Amino acid sequence: MVKLYPYEERKNFKLLIQCLKKYKDNCIFWIGAGISKIAGYPSWKELVLEVLLFFEENKHTLSFEKMMEFKQRLYLLNKKLKKGKIFADLFQELKRKSSYEVLEIFKTLDFKDFPDILQWLKYIDNHLYIKGVQQLFKDKEKQQKNEIYLKIGKFLSKGIPVITTNIDKGLEIALSISEDEISIVSLGRYNLNSKIFYLHGRIDEPKSWILSEQEYGERYANSKEFLNFWEEFLERFKIIIFLGYGLKERDIQRKFYNRDNLFFWIERILEQNEEDKEEEEINRTVTNLEINGINIYPIIYKDKNENSIFEVLDNIYQNAFRPTIQFTKEE
């Protein structure tokens, strides 16, 4: 059973249902890496790790100068991961550990570190960087699990589109969305009547990607078309519903400051004995966002596994769109 708490969040849930009922034409779902992760695609940490490993396995293709730069960058990363305690061989250490242990090592990195790592990999060898990212997503696509996308597809069938910071094609494949119903915003190709908006690019078009530090800077600071999109987008969609998105990207947060839009943040906490700390961390994040002028309404749910999001989406859909039974007087 999914539980919403505390009282304010139950109020937020009711407000979301009212918005979907009365103003669905102004609503949009914003899906992040948490949703793609459920479908079998990599998280930010996994993406960075896998591309690093891909470079390690293919370093023999690098020139001597690039090889030395790669080793120097690994040395610096090695120090940062272990806060001064350096592995004799970072990759051998990672290979010996379970996936969970590897991701625990990467916890010492801040979110902002991931674009930086991808940036220097791209600089060392752009071709290898593109090949590594695309190979990873191609492998994951073969194992794609569609259930989460089909749940989101029910809302799409009601005319509520999706914007995503993910670059995988999972949603459009699962729902058979045609190319003319898709916008790739980072390339300046967008139509506000699209069903899917790829904000940070799509896997099959490397020029559209916003993954590395440089790519963030080019789009968010220097692209006039990208800036124009934000104004049109936030004017068109007054109600944004975050799913599987951590609201950690400062470049995106700044777009939401001092807007009259409503932002619903659906976030999950694992149900466990020491849950108070996690709850406090999420509440603190929400408070910080409110201080920064973002009109956000958190809906935090807890359960024992990530699949509880299916129940949450079903609950939202049934409350917002279930048919109303009308009774007629007997003659």
Mean pLDDT figure = 82
**How many domain regions?**
2
Number of strands: 8
Gyration radius (Cα, Å) is: 21 Å
Report the structural category: alpha/beta
Q: What can be said about the biggest beta sheet?
A: 8 strands, mixed
Low-confidence stretches: 84-88, 326-331
Structure description:
This protein has about 325 residues and is an alpha/beta fold. It folds into 2 domains: about 220 residues, TPP-binding domain (Rossmann fold, 3-Layer(aba) Sandwich); about 100 residues, no CATH class. The chain contains 15 helices and 8 strands. The C terminus is likely disordered.
Question: What is the topological layout?
Answer:
Layout: E1 3-4, H1 7-22, E2 27-31, H2 33-38, H3 44-57, H4 64-82, H5 90-96, H6 99-105, H7 113-124, H8 126-141, H9 147-156, E3 162-164, H10 170-175, E4 182-184, E5 196-198, H11 213-222, H12 224-236, E6 239-243, H13 250-256, E7 262-270, H14 275-291, E8 296-303, H15 308-321
Parallel strand pairs: 2-3, 2-6, 3-5, 4-5, 6-7, 7-8
Antiparallel strand pairs: 1-8
Helix pairs in contact: 1-15, 3-7, 3-8, 7-8, 7-11, 9-15
